[in-house]
TrEMBL record:
<protein>
    <submittedName>
        <fullName>Uncharacterized protein</fullName>
    </submittedName>
</protein>
């Protein structure tokens, strides 16, 4: 599957988005924009962590916490953890942050299914990782949309140096 043509965050000019960005000037410093975006994603993830506390999930941004994330999303699937749309995005932000903290990468603007993606890997072997649509499918469809197995696809692609999109 080819890499999606991504727009750099520095030229993102849409109205406010789920992570609170307004129009960004093309002359903005890319590192400043990325840092601000990381902060917004981390804040959204933390909002989800607080919402998921009632499930007993230990969400510490470690790779092993992906099982706890999956358990919390199963609770959302079953209706025992009601999530607002923003908390659902926060669950995706949590998944992004686990990936970014483990593998580095940059957040990029993508498309309607995944308005934001995490891009990791070496030039020519970038892995574009979408979490928003996946989290929505996990909540809607249940355990068949396992988060740990999905993240393993991402990790395997990075280790193989395989340019691809994981959705």
């Amino acid at each position: 599957m080819p890499i999606i043509d991504l727009l750099p965050l520095a030229v993102f000019t849409k109205e406010p988005t789920m992570f609170g960005f307004l129009k960004i000037n093309q002359d903005a410093n890319f590192d400043e924009v990325q840092d601000a975006f990381v902060e917004r994603v981390a804040d959204a993830a933390q909002d989800f962590v607080q919402a998921a506390e009632s499930t007993g999930a230990v969400l510490d941004y470690s790779l092993s916490s992906l099982h706890a994330l999956d358990t919390a999303l199963e609770a959302a699937h079953l209706g025992t953890l009601p999530l607002t749309p923003m908390q659902t995005v926060g669950a995706a932000a949590y998944l992004y942050e686990v990936g970014r903290r483990a593998h580095g990468g940059l957040y990029e603007v993508c498309d309607d299914d995944d308005p934001v993606v995490l891009v990791c890997g070496e030039p020519g072997a970038e892995v574009c990782f979408g979490a928003i649509a996946k989290v929505e499918r996990r909540i809607r469809d249940g355990a068949t949309e396992s988060i740990p197995a999905y993240f393993e696809q991402f990790t395997s692609a990075l280790q193989a140096g395989q340019a691809c999109t994981i959705r």
